[in-house]
């Protein structure tokens, strides 16, 4: 069926009213009218792809902006959807869609409406799948019921993302772009019977975002090591993974099982054609005594169909703590020469996304560019060069540009790379000036404590007014992680790269007499709290 006739029928029958003004029952009536107009049976969709696609577009398209309907009409988009639907990860927005919108006028129309294309794509996919399920005959429905009834390895619990990691994952994937070459490499690795696949890169290159995206898309079992939260010890990792495996596969009699034994039990319950992937982020942040054991006591042997997707920073091979026997190992180093061009492409996609789609920053970014008479593509190219393929650099610099923090600079004057960015901000905040001692002390306390702490505690240790401490925390808000813990607003250093930068500053050297006094005050505070 010609998709143009679907759009014509929708615009002909659907009234020009706000979506929230139409009740569910009214919407369903509109859908049925449109299906009938197109000669579709409202209770039995056609069973070919073109028919299901058109039928799903009716279900999806009622009350949607016309520009979105036009997008799904395009043959390139339809072909990209079908291609993606046949992959293991169909919910990810196809790259062909992003490329199409870069040159087609529909891209400007959709961006002007602040439409989240990823969400729209996922919604259409869900409707497409629901419609496709309706194409089964009664005999096929009965057959599928029997297959499920006789499935020996039926999994009772549907996988969910652990609550302790849900906020981190949502934050990491909010503006996720690219990295298709990493996921392609890992999917290729899954052709091995079992193994460890490690993504390696410098701080800020997006390793945690890659891990979060995979967990989100596949609802994988996971553990995210976070140094700043003290969630980086083997016993915490083992406890979390044990519980996730038990819940996922309904394992019993596991009280005395170590991770190796538990994985064997779980592997017996993996459904045919599926695999068990466990994602573990930031091995470099793990706090574990030196010894012969693997990092986090990861097993040296694995049962078939079991894989670990790991991430870590680069370090000397003499410090490697992952030894295996008869298990495939592969490392993908994001800094390797063959990936530099691909990473740069992803960096440019991220900048383009913020410039065109981010509701919070796009207007400020466009104004900064227009005020300097730059071309958007020139801006994207130059900022990508400045970033040195580091996403954390962009996380700080792009919002800073949008908020006006760099109104006194031109494109060439922006800092080069993440470390120079940190140094530039340090200087612009006047942190080497003696008058900034209060601010230096507060940062030192955050570094020294290392875990999330409330403003009240910082003020008590620093012997400063709580209001003044809060002002300092607000000044450094983009570098701090703010979270509510047991009803208290707590703060910690946001990213390990900034923590490393602070630790390297001479002005924050713990050997300074000033900080020896502060350390005494920390000890006194902890003693009072424990008394």
TrEMBL record:
Entries under InterPro entries matching the protein: NNH (IPR054610), NPHP3-like_N (IPR056884), P-loop_NTPase (IPR027417)
Segments forming domain Nephrocystin 3-like N-terminal: 185-290
Domain NACHT N-terminal helical: 3-138
Taxonomy, superkingdom: Bacteria
SUPFAM superfamilies linked to this entry: P-loop containing nucleoside triphosphate hydrolases
A matching Pfam family: NPHP3_N
Keyword check for Oxidoreductase: no
Keyword annotations from UniProtKB, A to Z: Repeat
PANTHER family: AMELOGENIN, FUNGAL STAND N-TERMINAL GOODBYE DOMAIN-CONTAINING PROTEIN-RELATED
Protein name, as recorded: NACHT domain-containing protein
Organism annotation: Anabaena subtropica FACHB-260
Lineage of the organism: Bacteria, Bacillati, Cyanobacteriota, Cyanophyceae, Nostocales
């Amino acid at each position: 069926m010609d998709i143009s006739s679907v759009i014509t029928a929708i615009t002909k029958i659907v009234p020009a009213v706000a979506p929230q003004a139409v009740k569910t029952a009214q919407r369903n009536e509109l859908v049925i009218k449109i299906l009938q107009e197109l000669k579709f049976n409202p209770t039995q969709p056609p069973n070919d792809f073109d028919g299901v696609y058109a039928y799903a577009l009716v279900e999806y398209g009622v009350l949607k902006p016309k520009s979105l309907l036009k997008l799904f009409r395009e043959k390139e988009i339809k072909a990209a959807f079908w291609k993606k639907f046949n992959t293991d990860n169909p919910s990810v927005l196809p790259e062909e869609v992003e490329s199409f919108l870069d040159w087609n006028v529909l891209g400007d129309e959709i961006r002007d409406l602040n439409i989240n294309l990823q969400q729209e794509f996922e919604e259409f996919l869900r409707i497409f799948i629901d419609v496709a399920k309706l194409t089964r005959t009664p005999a096929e429905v009965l057959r599928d019921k029997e297959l499920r009834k006789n499935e020996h390895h039926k999994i009772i619990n549907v996988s969910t993302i652990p609550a302790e990691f849900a906020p981190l994952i949502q934050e990491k994937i909010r503006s996720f772009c690219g990295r298709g070459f990493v996921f392609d490499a890992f999917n290729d690795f899954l052709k091995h019977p079992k193994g460890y696949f490690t993504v390696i890169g410098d701080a800020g290159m997006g390793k945690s975002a890659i891990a979060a995206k995979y967990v989100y898309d596949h609802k994988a079992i996971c553990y995210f090591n976070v140094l700043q939260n003290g969630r980086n010890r083997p016993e915490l990792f083992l406890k979390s993974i044990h519980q996730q495996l038990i819940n996922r596969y309904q394992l019993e009699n596991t009280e005395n099982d170590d991770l190796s034994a538990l994985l064997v039990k779980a592997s017996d319950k993996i459904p045919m054609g599926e695999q068990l992937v466990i994602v573990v982020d930031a091995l470099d942040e793990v706090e574990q005594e030196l010894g012969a054991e693997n990092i986090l006591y990861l097993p040296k042997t694995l049962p078939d169909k079991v894989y670990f997707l790991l991430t870590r920073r680069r370090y000397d091979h003499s410090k490697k703590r992952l030894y295996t026997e008869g298990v495939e190992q592969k490392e993908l180093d994001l800094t390797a020469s063959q990936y530099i061009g691909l990473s740069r492409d992803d960096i440019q996609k991220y900048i383009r996304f913020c410039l065109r789609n981010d509701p919070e920053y796009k207007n400020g970014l466009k104004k900064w560019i227009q005020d300097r008479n730059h071309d958007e593509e020139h801006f994207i190219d130059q900022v990508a060069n400045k970033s040195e393929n580091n996403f954390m650099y962009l996380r700080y610099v792009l919002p800073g540009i949008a908020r006006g923090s760099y109104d006194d600079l031109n494109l060439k004057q922006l800092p080069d790379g993440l470390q120079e960015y940190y140094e530039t901000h340090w200087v612009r905040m006047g942190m080497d000036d003696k008058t900034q001692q209060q601010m230096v002390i507060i940062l030192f306390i955050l570094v020294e404590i290392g875990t999330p702490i409330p403003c009240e505690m910082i003020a008590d240790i620093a012997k400063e007014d709580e209001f003044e401490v809060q002002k300092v925390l607000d000044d450094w808000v983009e570098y701090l992680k703010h979270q509510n813990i047991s009803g208290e607003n707590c703060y910690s250093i946001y990213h390990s790269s900034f923590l490393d930068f602070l630790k390297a500053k001479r002005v924050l050297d713990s050997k300074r007499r000033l900080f020896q006094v502060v350390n005494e005050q920390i000890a006194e505070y902890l003693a009072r709290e424990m008394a």
